[in-house]
Amino acid sequence: MLAMAGILPGEESEWNYEIKFDGIRAIGYVDDGLRLMSRNDKDITAAWPELAGLASGTPPFVVDGEIVAFDAFGRSSFEALQPRMHQRNVSTIRALAKSVPATYMIFDLLHIGDRSLIGLPYRQRRDLLEQLGLRGSHWQVPPRLHGTGPDMLAESKRVGLEGIICKRLDSPYLPGRRSPLWTKVKNVLDQEVVIVGWKPGTGRREGRIGSLLMAVHDDNGRLVYIGNVGTGWTVRMLDELLAELQPLQRKTATVDAGVPGAVYVEPRLVGEVSFTGWTSEGRLRHPTWRGLRPDKRASEVVREQQPWAD
């Protein structure tokens, strides 16, 4: 179930508030072992060996949560996860699990024993989840926030968090659907983007990527250009991006971007950027690269935030 971007809801008594974590969404299948599945149905269990101890055996259950890494200030950091998201080498994965340890923040219970819980209201699912006592060195159930929505959002901003998630107490779990029954309210804007090409760099970036061309799908499922991003990466990140994009080159334009000298690619890779707003032309204002999202399908990328002009 996916949250919809929006504003704080009314009717405080009908909603619960949780911290919005900045990580990788994963469904956990727990019995005598642990299997982790990403949002695009990829088995990512091997990438997170420190979570294996969550397996308890009896009864088996299925949970939903976010795999996160914390920065020095105790905040979840998507950037900290980037070195781990593309690794396949077992020894490298084990080393990174020690240097950049992950925590599975479990916020929903979908199935236990032979019983599906997705039709139960969120309030009841959450109560059952807390009764499982899932607390370990690399997994936990984050606390529910107590207070008004405006107070919780203000506090999340004060301590440097991304925002909060508002969940209706009577909400069922809707697999694969984006619903306003879960509403994410952010302090910082971010947007998933499909990489549709790049503009070659000049000067110190000669032979590397100067900027990436970004697109999202509109209401008709058509890719539309939303601007370029040229900041937010290291030289190593640029080299890795170029290595992934070069095999995807195509002769025709992926979108109508009108960018002279652009190199277009098949729209397969998904990234994430932060930005300050939308222009009247439908472009992102001041985008900054955050990283690739191998856990997301390009076909799912749509405009997250309601557009506004400034």
Describe the structure.
With 310 residues, the chain is an alpha+beta fold. It folds into two domains: 2-186, D-amino Acid Aminotransferase, Chain A, domain 1, CATH 3.30.470; 189-300, Beta Barrel (OB fold (Dihydrolipoamide Acetyltransferase, E2P)), CATH 2.40.50.140. It has five helices and 18 strands. It has helices at 78-85, 90-99, 122-131, 149-158, 235-245, and strands spanning 2-5, 15-19, 24-30, 34-38, 61-68, 103-112, 115-116, 139-140, 163-168, 178-186, 189-200, 209-217, 223-229, 263-264, 270-275, 277-278, 284-285, 288-292. The strands form four sheets. Strands 3, 4, 5, 6, 7 and 8 form a six-stranded mixed sheet that branches. β12 and β13 form a beta hairpin. It is globular, with a radius of gyration of 20 Å.
Number of helices: 5
Span between termini: 32 Å
Taking the sheet with the most strands, its summary is: 6 strands, mixed
CATH superfamily of the largest domain: DNA ligase/mRNA capping enzyme
Beta fraction of the residues? 25-35%
Name of the top-level CATH class of the largest domain: Alpha Beta
Secondary-structure class:
alpha+beta
Nearest-angstrom radius of gyration?
20 Å
Averaged pLDDT, please?
91
The beta-strand count equals 18
Estimated helix fraction:
10-25%
Shape, per Cα inertia axes: globular
CATH architecture of the largest domain: 2-Layer Sandwich
Question: Which stretches are poorly predicted, pLDDT < 50 over at least 5 residues?
Answer: none
Number of domains: 2
Order of helices and strands: EEEEEHHEEHEHEEEEEHEEEEE
CATH topology of the largest domain: D-amino Acid Aminotransferase, Chain A, domain 1
